[in-house]
Design goal:
The complex is a heterotetramer, with two copies of chain A (379 residues) and two copies of chain B (398 residues). Chain A is α+β, with helices and mostly antiparallel strands and 379 residues long. Chain A has eleven helices and ten strands. The chains are: A alpha+beta (379), B alpha+beta (398). Chains A and B meet through strand 6, strand 9, helix 9 and helix 10 of A and strand 6, helix 9, strand 11 and helix 11 of B.
Chain lengths: 379, 398, 398, 379
């Protein structure tokens, strides 16, 4: 499968680029952070994205989608990453949207997909319990109840969770912590009794929630897929999510590189542009190579999802491992090469370093993905 | 009884008579550091009393000459004094840029009149000093500074801007490098000058860092008139004073950096890792993290052994010199690696900036990781340290 | 029947009639590469016969014009030819620096007479060529070369030395860069010249590498007389020819380097590791080695995807250019990492150089690890590749 | 304990330095390699070392030693490493000598120590069986026999084993492979029936042997220490050996650095000394720091052995891990910075890279020692 963009993809890229150029507002991000406890989704920006049709990209036309793929979604994610544009595309479309798309019943799809596409509802996926990404490390319990099921447990790092109308929760119906079997997916109304949401702001000024579920009643209609049989779904979701997030990370890494390259060409010290110092030149060149390698593996992994390539999981691990280390490097080198100004809040490069840190750890860091890659490769 | 025994005995008596009970013992009321200056507050009157007693004796800076506010103690006496204070759980909390950086430069370069004017106020904590070196266009290349001082009668008129003036917003005076000859070669047209920050035209603005609020400021000079008598050393010879002072700064930064490192170590990396990762097959749950922890611990051993070796060599008169750059370089990077590792171990918990539901230590880890990024930049970037090593230690050509 | 179908059909017939049975099929007698030249031997007479047939048809270099020894095939025809040969398990084994490097330069810069003189002998494998660029004092800084050619009537008289003249000791002719104007700026006084190595005054000496014997030689010129007619392109314009040729060399080195990489992979890293380390808790016995293997495998995927992307871009006319330096840089280092890892996994077994009791593969691993060290140096050091990237790709100032 | 050299140590260092300057003969090494299969100890050189008293350094005066310590032995090792001087000090004095010194009976010491000190006998320690260092990975079997014991097994990488008159063999009396218990140390005559020695030349042109023992009879007199109780002795020996070898490695790393630094100052390319290029400058400076750190930890670990510091094992692991990576770096950077000439056999820098490789893997590489360090530290 070609790694080049076709004509339509090129048009999409141009349009995403213009959007980002017009809507990158890092000042707003700084301001939001200072009002920290009351972070909310920027609804105007989200509305624009909906109008551009990007929330519809990966879904079937039957449910109001565009019937495109991750190659296209990746283009948008990359551009949003470039501008640090903060919209709930990843949480609503990639994470929650994929769960419904992959495992939802006809009925659930009909009911929910059009609404997340047109923005009339927000859904977050509540998956993480421990401090580190571990797909089957689920203790939240889903137990039978006369009214269907009852849910108890605690989730953290629920992306955009404070703004969600619904939550999709990964819970355990049977088995022990870290068992692959016994996992279920259920939909919960965020306003329902027993759901308590606490909002936090991350390092990168994005919103997450810690959510507790106490004796929350779940009707059988609100179970996605078979009870206790959701591990395969989750594997698929995390594969897609890791690659889509990698596309965003690529955009950020590329931008951090561009900003720094520009700085190397204008900043003078000791009577010369600092970009003329070979020590920095060589580091910039190596950094460039890392970004190029990341670009290629992101393109490859996105296409592997669309073609349902049997290698897609291995590629996704290689991809997230690579973008994690490249974005990390980009933040660190970007700040270091900027010198003093780089550690001040006023310069943008630090914002990329912060976003790098968050995305690096989301869904597993480079070491996690190397480990999974080895496991999948049979060693 | 030898002189030193006499000194010990009289010191012990004096301490018994003068050190308030609340300023002694393991739970004493003394703050870690008293920086001095007009904004210094003493919530506990005993602390103020104790400070006054110390100042009167010249024991805030015991080895300085008496005429400059010290007690003229010998090294041996100073050691005894510290030991006796330590024995009853007390100390002199006064510490400042004035004591650690400016005073050594004044001792070497100032006129007698200047010394008598400024040193006693440093010794008594009356004046708090800050440093004005870097400028927005003059970071690593400090000598390219542009803040200019133009002679007008008995005054200089100063215009320009300084950055990274640590604690400028709470200090009383600032020691500055200014350009007095714009036509000279860049190291040659610089003078070292002392400025009262209450002078008209001086203003400061705190700098916010990626980690949040910081002690650093920008400081602006808008037609500030400063008497020529406030210049230290000859006109256009300020670079010599600056170099002497930079050495003290680097030593201090290395020390601070160590402080910040150990700040992070409230709970050791290992403890954090054990809590977060558990055990697997009898060893730490994550083999990659385990080997990174071992690596930082081994590197720390190597670093400490190097510090021991060079300190011993310096004491034995075998010299040290520019190898100091190695410590700044290595320690700042080692601490960054530790902070990075700690944050990775903590995972999602340490991504929190603020909010409704988080653990204070986790938040602190994030802030320290970010603040630690400044360690390889401020006080001479790692790149500058590498330049210094390659030029001064290795003798590589320009 | 279309032209191309006709071509396919006639090719198939010709192959049936002319390709010896021993030169077909999976176990054919063909060597991987025939380099040609006076020292080429054909142990199997069928191979010689097959080569003669191919040469006669112009099919050793099928796309070259007929007058230069080719067959003037279109790209499409060439593809068909290769496919038909592949189908019966045969190929043209002739490959040489003459074909891959010198010929493209001759096509672009030589006179018609020079082309007719030299290209057919390359096409037929009669003459084997080697390259004389680097000198002991001119490695990374190739243009500072000193080997000089002084005009004397219709000849140049050449004196000087070349190094890294790969296969010089088994080649017939050498293409060289020589200095024809010592007073010109360094890139301007260089000419590109062809020298018959049988000329009096030419001598060669093999270079021993850290890995042992190597194809590389030193080549010496002691008052060697070469006709001016052997100069390609204008006098003092040799650098243009050289640059065109260097591009081909880098492509070839990247290809070879890939070859050497896969040579090492006779048994995959993983197989070696499984044998040496066993399993522990269901995964490879040593977690650090395991993660290093995963890292190199993932890096290889990234590298291959990058190669795919840029190749596609180049085919689509979106250009490539100096990014080629990236491949040389990255691949040579990746292969070094693999070789290093393999040697570490093999441990004591791969420390053997020679002796009475060792395994041949283990010894080979050592030699290849050592030989691989040359990959980041020869054909442009990694540092030169980084310079090229920063200048040509990133546009950083000098 | 001070890390500076005292007056006597300074004198020793000066004398070792002169010795190395006079006796570094890398041409001989190249020649020996070409006669590969017939490698032998350079007896003249060894005789000089004996006369200088260095073989006597770590042994008690009672047995003809000088009663000095590893601080002193380390000085000599470092200087020999600097010049790649190939003498059997490590195999005879550090490895075999230490076994006798630590665990030998009064009788054994009296009989053997004077002989290895005066060079009248050569003893090698045969410890390694697998490809990687693993102290308790011993299958060679020592079984009771009417005449005492009978030894069967195979050893490899026996340093200077082909020239040894006696071999000290690590063998298993009981327990399974990798058990700490059940290990014994026995002395075997190299000429004895059932001992078959095959000589190999290493990468660095030094001699090792693969040795097979077939039904070799061992008298009870020739057992060192208690049967099955040698693990503690081995731990001690490997600790000492790792540190002494590290001292040698430090000398080599330092010399590779010095050679390269000199080259950076004289080699010209592009009209300038290559040492003026910042890319190389910065790498050289970092390399310098690594050598300095190595120097400190070597000094520290040597002294910890002499003072029987409870931290000596951890320090030894930190030390060998550090010198392994520093010497490795020194070889790699040394060759790379020399460019083309660096990969030719004619330049010395490649010889340091080769010795680095061998010593890096001897007694465990950096990863092995990091692992052991962590284990000893309780994690």
């Amino acid at each position: 499968m070609s790694l080049l963009l076709n004509e339509e993809q090129t048009l999409l890229k141009d349009s995403a680029k213009s959007f980002t150029d017009e809507n990158t507002d890092l000042e707003a991000m700084r301001e939001k952070r200072s009002r920290s406890r009351i972070a909310e989704i920027n609804k105007d920006l989200w509305q624009k994205i909906i109008e551009l049709g990007w929330t519809a990209i990966p879904f079937s036309e039957e449910y109001g989608g565009l019937g495109l793929g991750y190659a296209e979604l990746g283009i948008v994610m990359e551009e949003l990453g470039r501008g640090l544009v903060d919209v709930p595309l990843f949480s609503n479309i990639v994470l929650a949207g994929s769960v419904i798309d992959v495992a939802g019943s006809q009925e659930q799809k009909k009911q929910l997909l059009p609404k997340i596409i047109d923005g009339s509802t927000f859904i977050s996926l509540a998956y993480q319990e421990g401090a580190r990404h571990a797909p089957y490390d689920v203790s939240s319990a889903l137990e039978p109840d006369p009214k269907g099921f009852v849910l108890n447990g605690k989730k953290q790092l629920v992306l955009d969770g404070g703004s969600a109308n619904h939550l999709i929760v990964v819970a355990r119906s049977s088995g022990k912590k870290n068992d692959r079997g016994g996992l279920s997916l259920v939909i919960v109304d965020a306003q329902q009794e027993g759901v308590s949401v606490k909002n936090n702001l991350l390092l990168d000024s994005r919103r997450v929630a810690n959510i507790e579920f106490r004796n929350v009643i779940v009707s059988t209609d609100n179970v996605i897929g078979g009870i206790g049989e959701s591990a395969d779904t989750l594997d698929k979701i995390y594969t897609r999510a890791a690659v889509a997030l990698s596309a965003e990370m690529l955009g950020g890494a590329q931008r951090a590189f561009d900003i720094t390259l520009e700085y190397l060409k204008v900043r003078e010290q000791f009577g010369a542009k600092i970009g003329s110092f070979q020590g920095l030149k060589h580091r910039a060149s190596r950094w460039f190579c890392e970004v190029e390698l990341s670009k290629s593996i992101v393109l490859k992994a996105l296409r592997a999802i669309d073609s349902d390539d049997p290698e897609q999981k291995r590629l996704a691990h290689a991809c997230k491992a690579r973008t994690s280390s490249t974005y990390h490097l980009s933040g660190i080198e970007g700040v270091q090469m900027h010198g003093g100004i780089g550690v001040t809040d006023e310069h943008d490069i630090g914002l990329y370093m912060k976003r790098a840190r968050v995305t690096e750890l989301l869904l597993g860091d480079a070491a996690y993905h190397a480990d999974q890659f080895a496991k999948l490769s049979g060693y | 009884m030898s002189n030193i025994d006499q000194f010990r005995s009289s010191t012990r008596d004096w301490l018994k008579d003068n050190c308030p009970a609340s300023c002694q013992g393991p739970d004493n009321a003394l703050p870690d550091i008293i920086w001095g200056g007009r904004l210094q507050e003493y919530p506990d009157p005993d602390v103020k009393l104790w400070m006054d007693k110390l100042i009167e004796k010249g024991w805030t800076v015991p080895s300085w000459p008496e005429e400059y506010g010290g007690a003229g103690l010998t090294k041996e006496e100073e050691k005894v004094l510290r030991a006796e204070m330590h024995a009853i759980g007390t100390y002199s909390p006064l510490y400042s840029f004035g004591i650690s950086m400016l005073a050594p430069a004044l001792m070497e370069y100032a006129t007698e009149e200047q010394k008598r004017e400024h040193l006693p106020k440093i010794a008594s904590g009356e004046i708090r000093w800050c440093q004005g070196y870097s400028e927005p266009g003059a970071g690593s290349d400090l000598a390219s500074l542009q803040c200019k001082a133009v002679r007008d009668g008995d005054d200089y008129v100063i215009n320009g801007q300084k950055v990274w003036t640590s604690t400028a917003d709470v200090s009383d005076w600032i020691f500055c490098l200014v350009r007095t000859d714009p036509n000279a070669a860049k190291h040659d047209g610089i003078s070292f000058i002392l400025i009262d920050m209450a002078t008209e035209g001086v203003s400061t603005k705190p700098i916010e860092l990626i980690s949040g609020a910081s002690p650093f400021c920008e400081t602006f000079f808008d037609n500030v008139r400063v008497p020529v008598a406030n210049r230290i050393h000859e006109e256009n010879k300020g670079w010599s004073v600056a170099k002497a002072l930079l050495l003290h700064e680097r030593t201090m930064l290395a020390a601070n950096s160590r402080g910040s490192g150990s700040g992070l170590e409230r709970r050791s990396l290992l403890t954090v890792a054990r809590d977060a990762l558990g055990q697997k097959n009898g060893t730490l749950g994550d083999p990659a993290i385990r080997s990174e922890i071992a690596q930082t611990e081994m590197d720390t051993l190597c670093y400490e052994a190097t510090l021991q070796r060079t300190t011993e060599a310096a004491k034995a008169g075998q010299g040290m010199g520019p190898e100091g750059s190695m410590f700044k370089l290595y320690l700042s990077e080692l601490n960054q690696r530790k902070a990075d590792l700690r944050q990775r171990i903590n995972g999602a918990d340490s991504l929190i900036w603020d909010g409704e539901d988080f653990n204070a230590e986790d938040k602190e880890i994030t802030r320290e990781w970010l603040y630690g990024k400044a360690a390889t930049i401020l006080g001479g970037t790692s790149e500058i340290q590498l330049n210094i090593i390659s030029k001064r230690v290795l003798g590589l050509p320009d």
